[in-house]
Amino acid sequence: MDFLERVFKLEEFETNVKTEMLAGLTTFMTMAYILAVNPGMLSETGMDIGAVFTATALASFIGTMVMAFHANLPFALAPGMGLNAFFVYTVVFQMGYTWQFALTAVLLEGIIFIILTIFNIREAIINSIPENVKKAISVGIGLFIAFIGFTNAGIIIQGQGVPLMLGDLTSPNAIVAIAGLLLMTVLLSKNIKGALFFGIVGATILAIPLGVTSIPTLDSFTGVPSLKPIMFQFRFDQILTVDMVIVLFTFLFVDMFDTVGTLIGVSEKAGMMTEDGKIPRVKQALMADAIGTTCGAMLGTSTVTTYVESASGVAEGGRTGLTAFTTGLLFFLALFMAPLFLMVPGAATAPALIIVGLFMMSPIKKIDFKDYTEAVPAFLTIIIMPLAYAISEGIIFGILSYVLLKVFSGRQDEVPKLSYLLAVLFIIKIIFV
Fold this sequence. Notes:
Blueprint: H1 2-8, H2 17-31, H3 34-42, H4 49-71, E1 77-79, H5 83-94, H6 99-118, H7 121-127, H8 131-152, E2 156-158, E3 164-166, H9 172-189, H10 195-207, H11 242-270, H12 282-299, E4 304-306, H13 310-315, H14 321-334, H15 338-342, H16 346-359, H17 372-388, H18 391-408, H19 417-432
Antiparallel strand pairs: 1-4, 2-3
Helix pairs in contact: 2-14, 3-4, 3-16, 4-12, 4-14, 5-6, 6-11, 6-12, 8-16, 8-17, 8-18, 9-10, 9-16, 10-16, 17-18, 18-19
């Protein structure tokens, strides 16, 4: 206990070992769904689902441990929702690239983030992006993730004569998803910690008698799934392509705002912000994100980011890196229970995607809808993402419309200089790609 006190400075932050470890357990319970959701999503690209499970758990462990010991903050990291959706549904399915291409972009993103963090450039880039577009990105991704959840459950299907339509709500998959959504919502309304996790468990149990999934046999517990099928699988021959630049930028952009937004929100909730409104040890926290992403790409998973679910542990009293250490340790232990997580069907994780989509909607309350040069770019960012089934297209429409509207309204001085450069790049992409 004395060792933990010295390392994490518990007394200085007015906390104790019991409180911190309980907070870490709470955080793990609220974000453990990623161990089921991420392998399921990435396996749609042809990646080995067992290997992705191992990569997800290890990347979460590494990133969270860096946060614990380097930043001494109670935040946990894992492959990010939204970023994994972009990986699968935009880069691989829509653009037609291989998952190896996508992993290469994630690796480059992590390396660039390490460099940008060392030279304090990330904050400068963040400050140059229009505020309302930043908020809209979170909302748009939320709608996109929820849409994926509805389609994975068969609740929304491709239409006959119309683009989309309601699916068969009496199908086993739809029943499992709807039941899971109801359970999660009830648990959330009662402030039960781990509502998403318990909702997935409940939906999975229901899925067994309905024939949607089956209980793993004892023989399936043969150890940790091998990383060999996906580890160090990169396509360096495509680094200099235009599409790589677009994909890499989108990964950088989305992760940058997701991480910083989470750090600000959770720090405010914990009362940890400094008097001048800054996040304590933010450089170290951003480095944890960068290292986690780089290591995650090498292992074979999508971008690692700080999780907003860390707020659940903070609400339980977590104030130091011991909270993150506890969460990271639980991710490592989860490696040895792979069959239990891999038996979870997409219909059971679909309601978690829908609820996470709801969580990401809150910034819409802070968007300025009175000024049309602000409202229209924000709205386009939000609506294009789910309709075009691509996060990157929403970002392109948002920033490009922002620049054009400000210029034609005679308010070009309001446009950050970097946004002009981004607009030019997006126009080139639209014309030539």
